[in-house]
TrEMBL record:
<keyword id="KW-0159">Chromosome partition</keyword>
<comment type="similarity">
    <text>Belongs to the ParB family.</text>
</comment>
<dbReference type="InterPro" id="IPR041468">
    <property type="entry name" value="HTH_ParB/Spo0J"/>
</dbReference>
<keyword id="KW-0238">DNA-binding</keyword>
<dbReference type="InterPro" id="IPR036086">
    <property type="entry name" value="ParB/Sulfiredoxin_sf"/>
</dbReference>
<dbReference type="InterPro" id="IPR003115">
    <property type="entry name" value="ParB_N"/>
</dbReference>
<dbReference type="InterPro" id="IPR004437">
    <property type="entry name" value="ParB/RepB/Spo0J"/>
</dbReference>
<feature type="domain" description="ParB-like N-terminal">
    <location>
        <begin position="2"/>
        <end position="88"/>
    </location>
</feature>
<dbReference type="Pfam" id="PF23552">
    <property type="entry name" value="ParB_C"/>
</dbReference>
<dbReference type="InterPro" id="IPR057240">
    <property type="entry name" value="ParB_dimer_C"/>
</dbReference>
<protein>
    <submittedName>
        <fullName>ParB/RepB/Spo0J family partition protein</fullName>
    </submittedName>
</protein>
<dbReference type="Pfam" id="PF17762">
    <property type="entry name" value="HTH_ParB"/>
</dbReference>
<dbReference type="Pfam" id="PF02195">
    <property type="entry name" value="ParB_N"/>
</dbReference>
<dbReference type="InterPro" id="IPR050336">
    <property type="entry name" value="Chromosome_partition/occlusion"/>
</dbReference>
Length: 270
């Protein structure tokens, strides 16, 4: 098919195409041509790409005039789902692209996280954890997309209550090249804040703060531990969630913790 008749999908879930990978693909196409056809669908007077935009881009750069295609009469919904799934089956999406693709599947087709995981052969916890990355502010999402921040480094930052603390944490992470475990410790330190002299109330003890910080980092949502005055340890834990996804994540975390033989949250002693 003539390349001029083929147009990209403006809703393509993948936004970033690594230059070094494209150069390699262009050289391969110049030598061997396009081995795997591009999947397109007819739209008015042109054909829209369903799967294979990288190959289409590389073919243009290689100077090809025609490319092999497979024409499918997909509806817009079918095309969207196929494009999302095809991209998610690749291994080179950045974390934010992957998270947005999950979100689009959930919103466009009313898929639950279990549905997405089943279709892609991934665990529900993986899908949930990736989607939670979208709760990070834009400057942290950009760091993830650029590869300047790993998922393990970024995830604990969800427990920080505002962008000022998150920016402070990011500066420390880059300056000291922190591991994910070191970032968790940093978040606990930032949540604790400067030490105050003369604090005697039970709810402000170091043990309670440590428990609160641990829960907040583990769950990635606001947590409050409130103790009753007296010698006997009594009180309540309040967990705040702001969406169905956050609730699902909390419930899944609790289920996983009950199946562990090592230390669980409920075994923490004050």
């Amino acid at each position: 098919m003539d390349l001029t008749l083929i147009h990209p999908n403006k809703n393509q879930p993948r936004k970033n195409f690594a230059n070094d990978e494209m150069v390699t693909l262009v050289e391969s196409i110049k030598t061997h041509g396009i081995i795997q056809p591009i999947v397109v669908r007819p739209v008015e007077d042109y054909f829209q790409i369903v799967a294979g935009e990288r190959r289409w881009r590389a073919a243009n750069e290689a100077g090809l005039k025609e490319v092999p295609v497979i024409v499918k009469n997909y509806s817009t919904e079918e095309m969207t789902e196929i494009a999302l799934v095809e991209n998610l089956q690749r291994q080179d999406l950045d974390p934010i692209e992957e998270a947005f693709a999950y979100k689009r599947l959930a919103e466009t087709f009313n898929f639950r996280q279990e549905d997405i995981a089943l279709r892609l052969g991934r665990s529900r916890s993986h899908v949930a954890n990736m989607m939670r990355l979208l709760q990070l502010p834009e400057f942290l999402r950009n760091e993830l997309s650029a590869g300047e921040l790993s998922i393990g480094q970024a995830r604990p930052l969800l427990g920080l209550p505002n962008e000022d603390l998150q920016r402070t944490a990011l500066e420390q992470i880059k300056e000291h090249e922190m591991t994910a475990r070191q970032v968790e410790a940093l978040v606990r330190q930032l949540l604790a804040g400067p030490k105050k002299e003369g604090t005697t109330k039970a709810e402000n003890t170091a043990e309670v703060r440590a428990l609160t910080d641990r829960l907040r980092i583990s769950l990635g949502v606001p947590v409050a531990v409130k103790l009753k005055a007296g010698k006997k340890v009594q009180g309540k834990i309040e967990v705040t969630f702001r969406s169905q996804e956050e609730l699902d994540h909390i419930l899944q975390y609790m289920e996983q913790e009950t199946n562990k033989d090592d230390e669980a949250i409920t075994s923490f002693h004050i």
